[in-house]
Amino acid sequence: MKAVVAQGYGPTDVLKVMDVPMPEVRDDEVRITLQFSGVSQADAMMRKGTPKFARLFLGLSKPKNAIPGTSFAGIIEAVGQNVTQFQVGDAVYGETSVSFGAHAQWLCVKADGLIRKLPANLELENVATLCDGPLTAYNFLTELAHLSSEQSIVINGASGSIGSAAVQIAKSFGAHVTAVCSSANVQWVKSLRADVVVDYQTQDFTQLNTSYDVIFDTVGKRNFAQCKSALKSHGQYLSPVLTLPLLFNMLFSHFFSNKKAKFTPTGLSPIPKLHQQLAAIEILMQNQQLKMNIDRRYSLNDIQAAHEYVDSERKKGVVLLTINP
Ligand SMILES: NC(=O)c1ccc[n+]([C@@H]2O[C@H](COP(=O)([O-])OP(=O)(O)OC[C@H]3O[C@@H](n4cnc5c(N)ncnc54)[C@H](OP(=O)(O)O)[C@@H]3O)[C@@H](O)[C@H]2O)c1
Fold this sequence. Notes:
The chain is built from ten helices and 15 strands. It has helices spanning 41-48, 55-58, 124-127, 133-144, 161-172, 186-191, 224-227, 244-256, 271-286, 303-311; strands spanning 2-6, 15-19, 29-38, 71-79, 91-95, 106-110, 115-117, 152-156, 176-181, 196-199, 212-217, 231-238, 260-262, 294-299, 318-322. The strands form three sheets. Strands 3, 4, 5, 6, 7, 14 and 15 form a seven-stranded mixed β-sheet that branches. It has a six-stranded parallel β-sheet with strand order 10-9-8-11-12-13. Helix 5 links the parallel strand 8 (152-156) and strand 9.
């Protein structure tokens, strides 16, 4: 089969499309003919091998699992003999997390992992990346922020994968949403139902003489110190981008401040919790309260171009690989 192979850590040309053996399905696995996979910031970080301490888990000099890619959607083509919950022909989507392997024509995953049947009235291409932006946004807004309809939230990076999902999910909870993006994306972010849109190229949301219950910096461009004065007295700063200063601020604010800084690695949450969250996200999509924006589509052969676009930090929603069209 054709698969992307990462020949080391580094720029986009470490990724090559090669012929590799098709994976054998084990007793507790299903084999999926992949139709779509996302290319995310997390995929770009894994390609670069950053932050460097992550190489302790990913592989010291090159990735342990040479085939990258985590989010997937496709059709089950074979089931292991112990699998009861899926059948050949089921349309499914999910996430392989640190097992990777989704940038390929076929993929084997454990049937009790993060894999779900395509819900009624939804398309495979729209659920292929649910485990990236929407799941992360939902996890942060519920487990960390406990966001409610009485609260106000700033979402920085509102045009990105996590940010655009966060705006829509926060609105579905009835919160007052201030979305922050560049001039080019103001109109689109308004269409996601944000109450206020701040163009960061002309205004600084921390200097508007307004205070918020939650500041969710989805792209890690503003730190806790910069945001603290714009938080209400028990406000929270959340970011999915882990840095040493954020780690320090989490520890310090936990013990010594009413205002808190928080981070969590969504992909490491227990699988039943993630299934529960995805079930809620599917309902939001079925009710049209959450729409995915597929910014660009690439073929497997164009994997380097897809990564270059993700590296630009300008993507609007998600970037999709179309496989086995
Ligand atoms: N902790 C977790 O569980 C978890 C899970 C998934 C991902 N992540 C991490 O979360 C981060 C964000 O991921 P993502 O997929 O949402 O990113 P993304 O989709 O690549 O973000 C792109 C967006 O960032 C915006 N942006 C760039 N510079 C900005 C700035 N200075 N201020 C405000 N917005 C800016 C751009 O909007 P404009 O063009 O309008 O500037 C663009 O739309 C990544 O670092 C990823 O690794 C963490």
